[in-house]
């Protein structure tokens, strides 16, 4: 992948000009490799990518890709994606019309001195504690990418044992249809 | 009816009307070669799998039908990767069948295992790894459908050995819906408003050019092109991939554009105010430096693949369609530019001042390669098919052969694959046995795939091969002479090693050699009189000959270099 920070749930990745592509694909072996390979060989950058079975039928999956529309014109990215035989439909959601969510999981070292302040961070960020032991806690935040960025910044004051982010998924805001749906399933 | 997967595969190929498979058996594909004995399909046994792929391409380019190749797993599959990449670049319809190790062994680094669907993901239009014998008919039918519709291309079907051996109840898809391709929509309705907007531009054009690409041949639009060109009087250029789409003898034809294009063709594009691109893709070998390409032209871009629009050059009007349908719609509207008299006057002046030239043929020194090609062309039956390798000889063949009809020029364009010529010529001849097939080759190219002449001889495919033997990797030599201060690095090959005549004879072909003009004419006449075995002629040509005109890589087309003979007058 050509992305400077691929799949890392990287902090402060606020792309200058990103777009969210919601790509419906056939749920077949190798499809993710086809999509990722296309981005790699054409020099398109991916900021984040999330894959899961789609809502309708078991035969389709949805890949949510945050693309860097500066690495290549969005039109080229979409048209080249559309040429993949296993790609069934592509919706382009403009950032301003997108409801974006991401999941952050982090395990933080704790001790008597910092436990209270960490709980404050958890409380104010809307995160939740999902696991605890004597020397650490694991917390979770499901929120906007910027809320996840903000929490990640707050956690820099602590010792992080491990931190994972999922990459975002998105739906258009109600009343804001995806601006372009290419080749809907017939 | 119960069949093995292997029988179902062969039967599926028969259902698709396949008449010839180019291939070479091996372990994983063994089960499929057994029912092949009982099939009506001809099999051409190649000597190297690369040959099978290029033969399938030559077959496809000469006949317009998809070429089929079949090889085994591992090295068999990797050996055919180059032809697959070549066909992908040139949008040539191919169906490639590869054997794969048994399903249970996949992923274990088994003997002759390789992930060929992974390897070819980026150079096929699509590929399949078949998971059950029941799926074989669907995979084959889908492969042919995908390879031949929309923008054509190569499709690979990988079949594990146990799948070929297991039983299935025979069936065959009866319609496209049964192919299960929910994401594949090659056909779209013609956008009437785009057609109208294009018409408005054509009406206003004062300096239009029809920029004809390979898509015009792929959509069988030659007749429509001719009708449209003649009715409108618009000048025509045909790219390397479109040679034969419009007759070279036609007065409106300016020839090939691009790096080694005709001066008038290149310059007409540069000075045009409207470029009508028909199935062309603004390749860097045509455009030169992109910002300087046809700077004052509006663009009408017709292509079946909408990913080509705005990829290289902004299109004022983009029409997603096959070329034929658009030309028919324009003709129905009787569209015509007002007056092209001034434009033609300029073009004719360029044509007159800078025709194709080369130094006077003489027996001092070696043969002029351009003269050899012209002499073969002059002695050839009309309708002769010409295949070529890649390099100087390819450019000269495109320049000096006069192509009059589609399917008569078989070459490697986008990929520039040396060694394409001999096997592609064999494939073309297998598909069009009624035609004479000449391969214009270079000595470097010939050495890459010459072993397929053994195939040609043993299969009774009598092609004729002209080796323009200048003892160099000529095009690289030309660049080193012009752009690297004549520092020749690793380009000398020797004219005598190998001995091409003995080599040809050892492969069961007739081998001839020509050093003088008289020997050249005699060798061509002898070659033309032999129609039962392949003929190879070793023409000893002058290594100092360079291809002109030339636009240096990355330079503007305005800086076209004409032949030295024409330079004083410029």
What does this structure look like?
The complex is a heterodimer of chains A (186) and B (570). In chain A, 23% of the residues lie in helices and 39% in strands. Chain A is of the alpha+beta class. In chain A, the strands form two sheets. A five-stranded antiparallel sheet of chain A has the order 2-3-1-4-10, with helices on one face. In chain A, strands 5, 6, 7, 8 and 9 form a five-stranded antiparallel sheet that branches. The longest helix of chain A has 12 residues, at 31-42. Chain A is elongated. Chain B has 570 residues and is an alpha/beta fold. Helix content of chain B is 37%, strand content 16%. Chain B has a six-stranded parallel sheet, sandwiched between helices. In chain B, β19, α23 (517-529) and β20 form a beta-alpha-beta unit. The mean pLDDT of chain B is 97. Classes of the chains: A alpha+beta (186), B alpha/beta (570).
Keywords:
heterodimer; A: 186 residues; alpha+beta; Alpha-Beta Plaits; 2 domains; 5-stranded antiparallel beta sheet; 4 helices; 10 strands; elongated; disordered N terminus; B: 570 residues; alpha/beta; 6-stranded parallel beta sheet
Secondary structure: elements and pairs:
The complex is a heterodimer of chains A (186) and B (570).
Chain A: E1 18-26, H1 31-42, E2 46-53, E3 60-68, H2 74-82, E4 87-93, E5 98-109, H3 115-125, E6 128-133, E7 136-143, H4 145-154, E8 160-165, E9 169-172, E10 180-182
Antiparallel strand pairs in A: 1-3, 1-4, 2-3, 4-10, 5-7, 5-8, 5-9, 6-7
Chain B: E1 2-4, H1 5-15, E2 20-23, H2 30-36, E3 42-45, H3 49-63, E4 67-71, H4 75-79, H5 81-89, E5 94-100, H6 116-119, E6 126-129, H7 136-148, E7 154-160, H8 161-165, E8 167-169, H9 192-204, E9 208-212, H10 214-218, H11 222-232, E10 236-238, E11 253-255, H12 263-271, E12 274-278, H13 284-287, E13 298-303, E14 317-320, H14 323-332, H15 341-353, H16 369-379, E15 385-388, H17 392-400, E16 409-410, H18 421-431, E17 437-442, H19 443-449, H20 452-459, E18 464-469, H21 474-483, H22 500-506, E19 510-514, H23 517-529, E20 535-540
Parallel strand pairs in B: 2-3, 2-4, 4-5, 5-7, 6-7, 9-10, 9-12, 10-11, 12-13, 13-14, 15-16, 15-17, 17-18, 18-20, 19-20
Antiparallel strand pairs in B: 1-8
